[in-house]
Prior knowledge:
The protein is mainly alpha-helical. The chain has 3 domains: 7-92, no CATH class; 100-188, Arc Repressor Mutant, subunit A (Orthogonal Bundle); 193-238, no CATH class. It is 46% helix and 8% strand. It has 10 helices and 5 strands. It has a 3-stranded antiparallel sheet with strand order 1-3-2. The protein is globular and about 50 Å long. The mean pLDDT is 81.
Amino acid sequence: QMKPLTDDDSKRLFYKRIFPQGSVCPAELELVSREIFKKCGGVPLAIISIASILDSNSQDQQMKPKYHWDNILGYIGRGLAGGGGAKDMQRILAFSYYDLPSHLKTCLLYLSIFPEDFEIRRDRLIWMWIAEGFLQRGEEETGLFELGVSYFNELANRSLIQPVDVDATGKAKACRVHDMVLDMLCSMSSEQNFATILDGTQQSKSISHSKSRRLSFQNSMSEPTTNLIDATSMPQVR
Length: 238
């Protein structure tokens, strides 16, 4: 298990993710920023997740107002300071999810159908999004695949997926999902009847939800898995 980062290292990681290179934290944000990264308990994933929400390099290219920082500080509660548990970490990650626009929420939630540590090829994922109807053209003349690439990149920029197989130009050809993020997505997928995951164990997720719309097999067709299929009525599965 990795040791938590020191306060100084936490601060460097937090600020590096938020502020453009060479800039400093504005004076009016110093106190609230210190309180936020302290509540992350030195856990890099928590620090990066919260910093990604406040990132001034995001699509709108604008510094988030102070009240936005105050809202985040209040939402995460005690955070991970003083040895917060898994539920506190899930609360921090959930805030990153709820901060997404609706189209990105659906695309991210779809990643719950993939097994832990699975390398998800970018192009395959985008075509799956297209087949599901998650990508809709706006007024721009952007093709659906190019739109999918922009969605993929935005999720990576927000540190909700981990880029893999990055080429010389800095473009990722695949991604993975951190196990804690995947746990959160699977939980939300179950709550929203988004997907049922069958892995041949007693821990199959959303197995009791007959309204589930997607079915994911994450193991060989063993006898336990077959029994789960026979015992499950899912008339809305795609």
